[in-house]
Each structure stands twice: as C-alpha cells, then as structure tokens.
Predict the 3D structure of the following.
Amino acid sequence: MRQSTETRTVAERGVDYAFSGPEKEGLYKAIFSRRDVRSHFVRNKDIPDDALLRILNAAHHAPSVGFSQPWNFILIKDAQTRKRVKESFERERERSIKMLENDKEKQERYARLKLEGIMESALNICVTYDPTRFGPFVLGRTSIEDTGVYSVCCAIQNLWLAARAEGVGVGWVSILSNEDLERILGIPAHVKPVAYLCLGYVEEFAQKPDLERAGWLPRMDLAKVICYEKWGKQESEKWSGLCDAVSRLSRNNI
Amino acid sequence: MRQSTETRTVAERGVDYAFSGPEKEGLYKAIFSRRDVRSHFVRNKDIPDDALLRILNAAHHAPSVGFSQPWNFILIKDAQTRKRVKESFERERERSIKMLENDKEKQERYARLKLEGIMESALNICVTYDPTRFGPFVLGRTSIEDTGVYSVCCAIQNLWLAARAEGVGVGWVSILSNEDLERILGIPAHVKPVAYLCLGYVEEFAQKPDLERAGWLPRMDLAKVICYEKWGKQESEKWSGLCDAVSRLSRNNI
C-alpha cells in the first residue's frame, strides 16, 4: 500500500506534507483562541450553509476506533425544542446550586455565572454516540469499550476548532439531563447523547476562558500535568531538556 | 467583563479574530490529513523538545468541564516499559482474534493488519483522567459525570492535530488492558487511563485511513450522520439549503 519507501520525514519532503508558517499558525490560533461561549452570541445572525457544512465535515473526519464513525449530529433551530432543553438546564442548574448549600460563597458565585446560550445562539447541535454502528465487532473496541464514545469526543473537538476558524463560537452545555434530551429529541435507547452544543457568531472570543477570568479556577502549569516514564515522576535526568523547556513556559505563564 | 458591546461579528472585526486564508487552510489541512499511524514511523529520530512542548501545550489548552483540566500526560521512552505494554497488546490482540472465530474471513483480515507502533515510534504517551482534580464539586459535571473524561478526549484530539502540523504522526493503541497499563505505569486507583499514544516522525501520512484503504470499512456519507430537529429526520424543508449542500458533498465523495 505504501507509495514510497524513502525515509526522509514528511517535514523534509516538502509541500504535500509540510505545513507553511501561516498554516501552522492557523492551527495553533484555533487551539489557543477557541472559547466555550456562553455570553457573546450575536443574535439573529445565521451561519451560512457552506460554513456549517465545513464545520460538520471537519467533525466527520475525526479519528474513530475501528473507523466506526459512531457519531450523529442533530441540528436544532426550533424554538420550542430549545425551550424544553433550556428548562432541563434550569432544573439541573437548581440541583447544582443545592449541592453547594454548605459553601454559600461558592454557591453565590456559581449562581451569578452565565452558563449557556441555548436560546440566543444561531443553532444547537446534539452530538450522539451509536455503539451499534458497524457492530457488534468493532476493531480496537474489544478491550476498552469506552473508546467508542471517545471517538465522538474527538469529533466534537474538530467541530469546535473548525467553528473557531470560521469565526463561529461554540458553547457546550453539560448542565442537562440526558434523559430529558433523549425524550425531547426522540433519541432511541441504544444511542447516547454526548454533547449539547450552541453555535453562533460572536461579539468576541474572550482572551481567556470565562471561568478563569471570573477567578473560578486558575490555569494549571503545564509542568504539573506531565510525568516522565511513570505516574507521579515529574522530573527526570533523561528528559532534562523537555523539563527545562516546560518550566520556562510555566514561568512565563504562556 | 465584556470589552465591547458592538455587534459586528468577529469575522467582520479583522485581524485580531479573523483567520487569513492560509491560517484557515492550516486548520483544515491538519484535520483532513491527520492519520492514525501504525506502520509509517521513522526509526531512531527523536522529536525535538520545542516541537514536543508545542504539542503538549496544545493538548493542555483543550476545553474542560468547569475548567478542571483533569488530564495527565505520561511520557515514555524506556524500552522495558514499552515492551511490557507491547505484551499487553499481544494478549489483547489474541483475545480479539478469538472473538472472530465464527467469521474466518474477517479473522484472517484482522490478523494481517498492523495495529500499533509501540516499539518503533519515538515515544509513547499515556493520557489519563483524574476525576478528583479541583473536586469534589466540579462545575458542569454535576449532571453528566462522563463530561470529565470527555474533556481528556478533547485534549487528545488537540495533541493529535498539533502533532500533524509539526509533521509528527500519532497512533492510538486501544487494544490494551487498562489494568496492565495501571500496573506498568504505577497509575493510582482513582486515575483512569484514557489513551495510549505512539508518536514519531513518519515516512508518509497516508491519503486515507489505513482501515479504509484496507477495505475494512468505508467512510460514511456525511448526509447519513446528520439529522434535522429530531433523531432520525434526515430531510427537512426548513434546512433545504444545507441538505442540498451535504448531498452535493456526499456525491462528490469528499
């Protein structure tokens, strides 16, 4: 199947494979300026079909275990449907607030946060996982069942980044009842809702995530989430070059 | 918190927000030419620290529920460690092959496939999920517990795309026992392995996914995975523009 046996790396092979400076910048720009949008949707401005098509096609080109492509995308504009989803959000939000009964300060901060843009975004997309797709034997899913739903998450991240490049904001509403979603959208029992997304043009992509700006939590140092060779080993002679580079990055708070 | 109340969209606001043509191309190029690499790793060629740092930092800038950043990245070069992981793969592969006992033709096709590059890649990365990070109350994870691990999957997809832009291939080995991984890497009981990745420069990024080229499964038409307003509704008057665009794309097999 291989077209070539030469051992030069793709970076050395040139245009077909390598990324130009601006192309590489484009990918990193999408990754670093992507935001979970709740408050900044522009009202009454549709996403054109060609942009939406590119966004969905990007999602569809995610990796999937055994090439099973186990995703579906339910596109929702209908106001009545959204209203019912919003009501599910309100109920779940109330439940969350009650969980913070013993931490009044946190409870008040939580209650002040804007956490969804269901009604004011241009459209909503429910992304689902169908474990029966091309099954029952799905190559690569025989040892770790969850890899099926992991594939759907990769598709969601592709969608999110493509939307960013199109100037479209995405907000993931996770404060919802999946049972409500199944009922409202007629999702069959064997299919699992994975994400409920709100999409639309935005007034701005904030410089930092909303929860970081609001002081809810800080961004962790990259050094804190890297281990070398084994869990918990956060320094290593053998990896000293990377350790130093990671520390410099953390110090510069990039 | 908002810096501006003007309603022009980001696409209309210019350089700070908008993507240039090549920047946009770069993102889509990464998405469409990313491959799950098993056979094409260049041996004995390290990934430079600065490239690896960019790849890991891209992963760390994924979205996460409640900004909980619940991921860790265990970087592995040690040959003994990899050998033990490879043995876990071999055992799980044998188990998979036995599952196809009643479909000899499929079983033989499966047995011929190259499904991992654990030993020949430049390094391995085990990506894990820590549900206790910034817990126990994680904003947005109170209704759907799984959103924690979904965040880790978004980080994996960022890593994968950044690697592609750097000319680095990534292969996700899912035919493994998580119990083996936990033991080999010393992962504590409360932390869950999510992905075991092999990274390295490659001889080529294949034009199509390995499993598509091998005729294991076809890529689905995009039209087949989109529904309008409700599950199962694959046509819609109200969405006719997008329906037509999706059909054209599917016909052109892009």
Observations:
- The beta strands of chain B are 71-76, 123-129, 168-172, 192-201, 226-228.
- Confidence is low (pLDDT under 50) at residues 1-7 of chain B.
- Chain B touches chain A through 138 residues (CB under 8 Å).
- The longest strand of chain B covers residues 192-201.
